[in-house]
């Protein structure tokens, strides 16, 4: 299969609620970057986080193997530091091979969960 | 009418919950690729699924007749194999004529359904 | 102000639930094409609907005045015929001047409403 | 880091419900333009609002500092005048440096909140 996608993706809306309802981990409030690597090479990805009132943090390094998808929860990022909860952020995702990125959030702060998604901005 | 669209579409976010609430089939948790074929020819479409930790599966073959729309539920795909539930996936949708693809999910795991949609990524 | 947008827009996902909950008209289940005309001329718009198993219907004619927005409910289309409820459809929106189109649905079939939106596909 | 984005963004769907449920300010019904400025210069942004039946209002002036994100609630705009509630609107967002804009709404009119998001239209 041909390799599809772009090397740079941006999600301007980021916010992980600090609490949720329902069985974990499915109903933990979470924010996800769904990444698809259709290429025949491993994707070496660097994520930089931007905030309202402090300097950017990163890079967070993520690997997505050839011809695999990874639905990356921002909640799981640990290095260089966890993503702060209840805090506005945005991110730039840069890869060494073309990938496709879609942004999703499940918000379970109230009894019934809410969902949002969009294909990210790319260049 | 002019023919609109592109021949390749990608949805990076895929996940079909294994359960739901409410009357079926409207409130069965489902994931849909809404496909529009404005051309005057039958669209012969091949879908390939990508996973986190196994090789891609496909092609799934789908026909959308000339000047028709098909709201394809991934739940209904059977050949070469059903789409696994509660499992992250992504997909590449390739057509022999231009089409337009929009991705929608209805999640009815909790008492009140949640919805998401986005125009898919295209090349 | 400069004129922004494109002349052709496509929404592949269309479905108006036949019932809803909550005070009307805000909580009537509805599907909307939000149209913005930034130009200094009246936008003369034609909408064609596509279905799963019958020929396209249209054009539905809509006017959006210069420098105005119109949040058009598909529920309100009457001529040549109302949009059938509980039925999959898709649409092509063609304008004589550039416009921007965003697709939104409010689904109030259950006690708590659900929302979806996406910028439409354009050419 | 390279500067990413475009200088003009459009959100065709705008509507701020006049009431909500749940603890404020998180669960106040609100509409947000999430703006990311990856450049090394301050972004000077002008927002113009469009309505159904009156002339455009603006510009609203907003600053997003270099390498910062701002999740701007339309509810908070005050000058030249507050955004009317329960009223359809649309907006054009123009910046002197490239930015990325994503549109989100939290609707808390009913007991359980609903969410929508999309990357805005750009030129």
UniProtKB/TrEMBL annotation, chains A, B, C, D:
Matches recorded under InterPro entries: ASRT (IPR009794), TM1070-like_sf (IPR036698)
Domain of life (superkingdom): Bacteria
Protein name: Sensory rhodopsin transducer
Organism (species): Antarcticibacterium arcticum
